Amino acid sequence: MITARAAASFEPVGRSVATARSFVRDTLQGWGFADVVDDAVVLTSELVTNAVVHAGTHAEVLCLRTEDGVRVEVSDRYPEREVPVQGSPAAMGSPDREGGRGLQLCAALAARWGVDYTPTHKNVWFQLDLPERPVGTRAAGPSLPAELLPLADGRVRVAVLQIDRKGTINAWNEDAEELFGYPAAEVIGRPLTDLAAWPHTPGTGTGVAEALQLSRWEGSYGIRGADGRVAQVYASHLRVRDTGGEPSTVCLLVRDHERAVLQTPQRVPAGDQATASDGQNADPFEVFIGSPAPDDLDGLLQRTVERARDMLDGDSAFLLLATDDETELEVRASTGLPSARQRFARVPVEAGPGRYGSARMPAVHDDLNAVPGAVPLLNGTGMRSVVTVPLKVEGRLTGSLGVAAEAPGRYSNEEALRLQFAADRIALAVESARLGELERLRRGSLSFLVEASDLLAGTLDRDQTLALMAQMTVPTLATWCAVYTIADQASEPYLSYVLHEDEELIDGIKSLLSKVAPPDPVPTPGARVWTTPGEVAHQAALRSSMRSLGLSGGPTRQLASGIGPTLTTASAVGGETVVLPLVARNRVIGMLTLGKPTDEHFRQEILELAEDLSRRAALALDNARLYSERTAISQALQRSLLPPGLPQIDGVEVEVIYRAAGEGNEVGGDFYDLFPIGNGAYGFAIGDVCGTGPNAAAVTGLARHALRLLAREGLSGPAVLERLNSAILDEGDRSRFLTLLYGEMRPQEDGSAELKVVCAGHPLPLRLRQDGTVVPAAEPQPLLGVIEDLELYEETVTLDPGDVLLCVTDGVTERREGTRMLGDDGLADVLTTCTGLTAGAVAARIMRAVERFASDAPSDDMAILAMRVPGLHHD
Question: Where does the source fall among the domains of life (predicted)?
């Protein structure tokens, strides 16, 4: 009789095999069928592999619960695939053949099995019966001497939590308060996911939220306590419903080293399992390990540690992969351990002298309490005995596989040989999958670095470069980052930028780091671990919690507000933190700090990618610094070439508009000036040096300062320009041609203004009369900087009230759009429309006309000088 059913469908992709295993394991554990879970998972894995990998079709898995056991059906859409006849072992092939192994396993492990056909589907099913137990006994262990009983504290505290259908805590007992530090009022109403640090299990979708939906669940995870640290617990979950039909989950939790209080008794040792029909021992792990490996490395490693643990009846298992230089091992998969804390942690290959301190040789430790630290990965886990074996390919160390148990003396050389045999069979598949993963990572890293280089090369702004550095690392490489900059060798590192993937945590991390001495600016390449932030964060969280708990009788609201930000910050920076130097031009210009949240580690490939990024970022940051410094110097020098300000002239309106061509330039080859000479006279000039840039600007400075000095000596306009011509020629190779309009202006008592003008090769000044006519106000003469002996003369012009004198550089008249040019005539046409306008309005209208004449940005410097005589009364 069928008492329950569960079904799921899986796509024809490699990762579906791991997902199917997880589905069957969770379903059977929820039904309380722990005795047959492992066999069911092995058989399901092989049958789903046949469907989704070999046949390339969808697979449907159906689990049926009966009074005596469980029936699992796996259907695919490849009905014409040949199926061996039951009872003919020879037809099934050997375990090393690609096909037929799933059916061989069914024959070896299942009580009954078979194959059903439809026109579109093939359905393989197997039945697993529950072992008979004495009446009234679910499971029992033998009597043990007191010294062999599990170790527990003086008083065992069992936290009892009740979680509603939404995953929210609605009950929290006194033992939970003692274990985790939170009073009931503070946690009731919060989701359990806020406190639970769920272990990462690659290839499965089971998390805390999914586990709470299962009818029964048992295992290890972490609870983040009030002090910010994660306490490892062993938990048993039971799904119940009240009289109104409302479901909830009751959770019992104890400290992980006291798991014996809740843990289901251990399985029957592997040696007592059923044998195959031919009388030979059918070790499920050895048969299973020969099946086609999952497509993903994480799925393969996780399956390996699970089967290794089951094969040696251990409490935990772990697999580490060696780095390229074979000096360190990196934790990549584990079961029965707090994997969230251990994943990507690194340990040395040679941990000590002798064969037992090296991962290159098999090793058996009877009691880790007798040799503390012999296996650093197991420190603080409660494991006592362990067997480890190397994974080698062609004599090269590629990894290490280990199985551990809580009881001492569990393993001997015989178990080491069995585990080594399994490791030898899986080593090549692991190395192949690892190389495939590395190739994908390197391709992704190359794309990442190319994009990063393009982004960093696209800006020379220091602040934008800092922001780009942080945004490229978070969350791609790290959970948070901080950038320190060093102005010069005598300066201390300065915290310049902080970023976290959760923006609400940025201020807390910035406040924490500002109170911590920055890391030493060591130029040694590579990432180095920086423990200070995590240590300070935990201490601050602990002090805050203790102060808050000391508020006896205070409301819960005060407690929560007092510890919330500190605990959140401690959790955010409580994982591994590394520092990479930013080295450019043989100098440390800063540090890039990357961090992970509580108990997380960086994988080696990520650190190598971060090191590549830091080199590119350092050069971009130093380029931005140099550009900023040179821009500041250039702008300061350029500003020194501009007139300090225009004088106020009674009876004359003056307006100047100046635009230098080129990004970041304030001064180019064009220049203007207006200055008092004395005796009521004012000198004015507008000029254009051949070319643009620094060399032209140098001649600009020479011309402007020389004009002022010579004019104030009382020299006439022609004499001033002749001496300036000689000074320019004295510059030799640095000299430049110069066109210059120079004049002296004297306002008259009748409201007019008298001008004496010399136009040396410059665009002629234009005079706008009140009647709207426009005429040149001077005649052309030779430019400066070409010949030594110049004979220049000055012309006298009288501006009547209402007249305007417009002076421009050739950047205005030579404004182009395709083959069209504004020219002198076009400028005169625009000026005729300016009758009655002030000097400022005239200059603005001319500039608008120039800008609208062409759509491209100006390629030449432009200067406009407009002077208007309004008369005795402003009109």
Answer: Bacteria
Query: In whole angstroms, what separates CA 196 from the centre of its chain?
Result: 24
Q: Which residues contact 185 (CB under 8 A, 6 or more apart)?
A: 556
Rounded CA separation 383/316 (Å)? 8
Secondary structure of residue 776 in the 3-state scheme? strand
Architecture of the domain whose range is 646-869:
4-Layer Sandwich (3.60)
pLDDT at 554: 42
Supply the pLDDT for residue 135: 57
Other CB atoms closer than 10 Å to residue 274's CB: what's the count?
A: 12
Q: What is the pTM (predicted TM-score) of this model?
A: 0.47
In this structure, how many other beta carbons lie within 10 angstroms of the beta carbon of residue 424? 14
| Contact call for residues 593 and 484 (beta carbons, < 8 A) | yes
Same fold, 4-80+100-129 and 459-546+566-623: no
pLDDT, position 355: 59
- Residues 219 and 210: their CA atoms lie apart, in Å, by 13
Instruction: State the DSSP H helix or E strand holding residue 217, giving kind and residue range, or none if neither.
Output: strand 216-224
- Are 336 and 316 spatial neighbours (Cβ–Cβ below 8 Å)? yes
From 162-171, 343-352, 851-860, the region with the lowest mean pLDDT: 343-352
**Residues β-bridged to residue 63:** 6, 72
CA proximity to 54, closest of 291, 301, 285: 291
For the packed helices 506-514 and 532-549, what is the interaxial angle rounded to 10 degrees? Answer: 100
Pick the CATH number of 159-261 from 1.10.600.10, 3.30.450.20, 3.40.50.620, 3.40.50.2000: 3.30.450.20
> Measured between alpha carbons, how far is 423 from 317 in angstroms, rounded to an integer?
13
3-state SS of 351-405?
CCCCHHHECCCCEEECCCCCCCCCCHHHCCCCCCEEEEEEEEECCEEEEEEEEEE
Kindly report, residue by residue over 693-723, the tens digit of the pLDDT.
667 777 888 888 899 999 998 899 999 999 9
Report CA-CA distances (Å) from 781 to 259, 363, 433, 742.
104, 100, 84, 12
pLDDT at 181 over 90: yes
Token readout for 293 is: 């490996």
Read off the pLDDT of residues 725-764 as tens digits, 9 standing for 90 and up.
Answer: 998 888 877 677 889 999 999 998 888 999 999 999 999 9
